[in-house]
Amino acid sequence: MKAGDQERAWERHVVLRERTGARITAALVMVLFPAWSLFDYWLEPAYANRFLVIRLAVGAFAAAMLLIRRSPNGMMDRLATVVLVLIVGINIAYFISLVDHITIYTIGFSLIFWGFGLLLVWPWAFMVSCFALTIGIHVVFWLASNHSDLESFLGLLAYLISAAAISTGVSIARRRLEHQAFIASYELEDKNRALATALATLKAAQERLVATEKLSALGRLIAQLSHEINNPVNVLQNNLEPLTEYLTTIEQVLEIARRQCSDPSGELARSWSELEIDFVRTDMREALSSMAAAAERIRTIQNDLRAFMRGDAALPIEADFNAGVRSTVAMLKRTLGPKTVLFETYGELPPARVHTGQINQVTMNLLQNALDVVGASGRIEIETRAEPDGLVLSVADTGPGVSEAAKRHLFEPFFTTKDVGKGTGLGLATCYQIVRAHGGTITLDEGYRNGARFVVKLPFVAG
């Protein structure tokens, strides 16, 4: 945290600290100042009733202080406390000018100063001014009284001045210590935040390495599976057509034998009916047709996987951009929610020199993000088109869109709006790096209002 930020935080802390001190001061005056009437009735019964009315009035003012509206900078709390202290000082000075037990009342008067030193953290100039005004009021009332014992007056005055000086020193020292402790705690908190950020970054990097290794292992596994699947699929497809032809030949022979058998009650006719040969012929053809469709589906899935994994060569190759997008879309179609609709629009594109696998990864990341935000229902649109300056790929969704706060960090590594454990914040950052490496751009369409739409632009000839 910067020094300016620390000082501003300290100022906010001081406001709260002074507000608390002002409330405690008002509460103590509200209770203790009227309670001193017990000493009035014991020591100065002649003035006790008069003093009680004054004490109750001051207590009511202190209670009203607790209800005043607080200012943002704390100045209202400070001024209200000064006014309260001055009012108390005026009344005590007035009491001392009348009573005979001056020493006890002066000691009671000094409790205000000691309380200041213990409760308040005002700047020293403010405290000295408040103390000086209070002592000045005491001097004025003393001079206006009938007391003529100068020596006692000077002694009590020295006592009040020393109490004010000590209280001011205590307050200043405590203010400095609180400031040092506050700044130290903020520096420690700042270091803790930096450490937490570093740990989070390290953890994310570790997770990325693990994920990369898993993807690498998955790629090798897919390559092995593709090879292993390819052989039995070839066997199936190579034998399905001859089997169909053999079935046709057998059916022809059976039909000839059936026509040559003139006895409807003979063994051939009976077996034909019992074995349901007509149904078997139809069902066998449907079974062979289903097997051919299943084998073709396996072949399609295999081709999609191979198309997605292809293109990891060190140099870009001339490729059909639409074919790469289609193969990626075909893979993700199988993960669509029950009410998710995917619309595809492919324009007429010239061949482009790209890293096919990397561009497929960009398409995969954008589509996966769209699927994550729309959930089980929504609309996703993917479009390719040619513009005068290059190829365009856009992916739009009907999700909640991107917040203003998130827009500033969209392509930063490790930034994610997904829940913990559901995203590493690397998808869009990876897309950004890949597109930039191809000499293109990737942006969020600010004018799109139905959700979010990302637009990738690539030059026709990319290095």
Architecture overview:
With 463 residues, the chain is an alpha+beta fold. It folds into three domains: 192 residues, no CATH class; 100 residues; 142 residues, Heat Shock Protein 90. It is built from 13 helices and seven strands. It has a five-stranded mixed sheet. Strand 6 and strand 7 form a beta hairpin. The chain is elongated, with a radius of gyration of 45 Å. The protein starts with a helix and ends in a 5-residue tail after the last strand.
Estimated helix fraction: 55-70%
User: What number of structural domains do the residues give?
Assistant: 3
**Biggest sheet: strands, sense, closure?**
5 strands, mixed
- Helix and strand pattern: HHHHHHHHHEHEEHEEHHEE
Which tags fit this structure?
single chain, alpha+beta, Heat Shock Protein 90, two-stranded antiparallel sheet, 13 helices, 10% strand
Fold topology:
Elements: H1 3-35, H2 37-43, H3 48-65, H4 75-96, H5 102-119, H6 124-144, H7 150-260, H8 267-274, H9 277-309, E1 317-319, H10 321-333, E2 339-346, E3 352-354, H11 356-374, E4 377-387, E5 390-397, H12 404-407, H13 427-437, E6 441-444, E7 452-458
Parallel strand pairs: 2-4
Antiparallel strand pairs: 1-3, 4-5, 5-7, 6-7
Helix pairs in contact: 1-3, 1-4, 3-4, 4-5, 4-6, 5-7, 6-7, 7-9, 9-10, 10-11, 11-13
In short:
The chain folds into three domains: 3-194, no CATH class; 210-309; 317-458, Histidine kinase-like ATPase, C-terminal domain (Heat Shock Protein 90, 2-Layer Sandwich), CATH 3.30.565. It has 13 helices and seven strands. The protein has helices at 3-35, 37-43, 48-65, 75-96, 102-119, 124-144, 150-260, 267-274, 277-309, 321-333, 356-374, 404-407, 427-437, and strands at residues 317-319, 339-346, 352-354, 377-387, 390-397, 441-444, 452-458.
